[in-house]
Amino acid sequence: MGQAVSSYRAQVILGAVLGLIMGGMVGYFTPHPAPPPPITVSTPLPTATPLPTSTPAPIRVYITGAVSQPAVYSLPPGSIVQDALQAAGGPTGDADLERINLAQELRDQQQVYIPRRGETASRSLISGGNSDSNSTGSGLVNINTASAAELETLPRVGPSTAQRIIAYRQEHGPFATIEEIQNVSGIGPATFEQLKDLITTGP
Q1: 72 and 156 in contact (C-beta within 8 Å)?
Q2: Cα separation of 106 and 75, whole Å?
Q3: 40: burial class by Cβ within 10 Å (0-12, 13-18, 19+)?
Q4: Contacts of 2 (CB under 8 A, 6+ apart)
Q5: Separation of first and last alpha carbons in the chain
Q6: CB under 8 Å to 139, separation ≥6 — which residues?
Q7: Looking at 9-23, 28-42, 49-63, 121-135, which range is the least confident one?
Q8: How far apart are CA 71 and CA 156, in angstroms?
Q9: Which of 64, 78, 106, 174 makes a 20 to 30 Å CA pair with 128?
Q10: What whole-number distance in Å separates Cα of residue 57 and Cα of residue 129?
Q11: Residues whose CB is less than 8 angstroms from the CB of residue 163 and which lie 6 or more positions away in sequence, other chains included
């Protein structure tokens, strides 16, 4: 009887040990789900805002003489005489282009005179804009000191109008303001509108 109990107990213990071993093997060989990937939060990098670029101001050039449409034109900085000539509709048939440098770069408030063939009058072909002594340091024509030839470089000022300007300042004294030039016969508001940015009464 005692041997039977001992044998039964041994079988129970052996079964328990085998159960533990089997359970461990099942747990070891059973595949485990992979852990979820970590959650990453991306922060967008700040983008640099481009700085606004300033646009160079155009230059104003008065082109006259042997051109199709003499007037004051606004041209891009770095423009040359050829550009001004094209803006004015090109030369007339009697233009003497050999006497002027078409490749010369222009500056603000300059005056370009395209001579005619056979013309003998001596005058500056390119004046103003600090290019020569016929104008003030600012490139403006001084209506109190300019000669008739210098006054004629202005838009809509011919020989007779230039003489009237000189006669007016001789009779009334120097112009106090540029607006006073409208008191000269033949210079009305329309003409003054074209002159006001090109003339001065002095420093």
Answers
A1: no
A2: 9
A3: exposed
A4: none
A5: 141
A6: 107, 108, 109, 110, 128, 129, 130, 131
A7: 121-135
A8: 9
A9: 174
A10: 15
A11: 148
DSSP 139: S
| Domains of the chain, earliest start first | 56-132 (3.10.20), 140-203 (1.10.150.320)
CA 112/CA 66 separation, integer angstroms: 10
d(CA 47, CA 164): 65
Residue closest to 105 by CA, chosen among 87, 128, 127, 82 = 82
For residue 128, what pLDDT band results from cuts at 50, 70 and 90?
A: low
Query: With 50 as the cut, is the pLDDT of residue 135 above it?
Result: no
Q: At 8, which amino acid appears?
A: Y
Residue with tokens 């805002």: 49
Question: How confident is residue 90, by pLDDT bands cut at 50, 70 and 90?
Answer: very high
- Amino acid at position 89, single letter: G
The position carrying tokens 């089997």 is 22
Residue 85: what pLDDT? 94
* DSSP-assigned states of every residue in 48-80: PPPPPPPPPPPEEEEEEESBSS-EEEEE-TT-B
